[in-house]
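**User:** Hello, beginner here. Are you able to go through the protein record under this note? It all follows right here:
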Amino acid sequence: RELACHLGPDGHRVNAISSGPIATLAAGGIPGFDKILEHVEANAPLRRNVSQTDVAGAAIWLASPLSNGVTGQCIYVDAGYSITMVPQSIMDN
């Protein structure tokens, strides 16, 4: 956001994308990653995980004139998971 304030007067927009976990070949090497994907799918409001295509869509939107009025924002592409609370079952473990 500081960069957005600093660079905005010159017409530059600064934003970020924060994605949920994505099933990739590299992520498959993380121990327990399948459990993370299952947890997100069960608890995200959209009841699914996001894909690389979902994140790419957000990036294309941010790079397009459709988002000309957007700066200093973090766009969450996580099927809504970031707006949920941690389930009690995780707190109990």
